[in-house]
Write a structure and sequence with these properties.
Layout (H helix, E strand, L loop, with lengths): L3 E3 L2 E3 L8 E5 L6 H13 L4 E4 L4 H4 L17 H7 L4 H13 L2
């Protein structure tokens, strides 16, 4: 296997498993929840966290219904992605929080 680095951690056949904590959209658009998940992932030894990013206007229309209803709280996929998305400034805050946990 070829060796490579992720965040200055060597990945090879002989290295420890690189653990990525999947946060996805579980933060439901809340910065506080996102920070809590980052803290928990760091506390339990994750090497990285992974979020999902959706841009409502690029993936849906305002009137597009859910293909599979995942929440009665939102009328459409567009609204769901809009409400669970972060602004660029918020992503920067999340990135800075992650960097502090290294």
């Amino acid at each position: 296997m070829q060796t490579f680095k992720i965040a200055n951690k060597l990945i090879s056949n002989n290295s420890k498993t690189f653990i990525i904590a999947e946060i996805g959209l579980a933060h439901m658009g809340s910065l506080n929840i996102a920070h809590s998940f980052i803290d928990a992932a760091a506390k339990f030894g994750a090497d990285a966290v992974k979020f999902q990013m959706h841009i409502a206007s690029e993936e849906s229309t305002i009137d597009e219904k859910f293909r599979i209803r995942i929440s009665s709280q939102y009328k459409s996929r567009y609204e769901y992605w809009e409400k669970t998305s972060f602004k660029i400034e918020e992503w920067n805050e999340i990135i800075n929080h992650c960097k502090k946990k290294k």
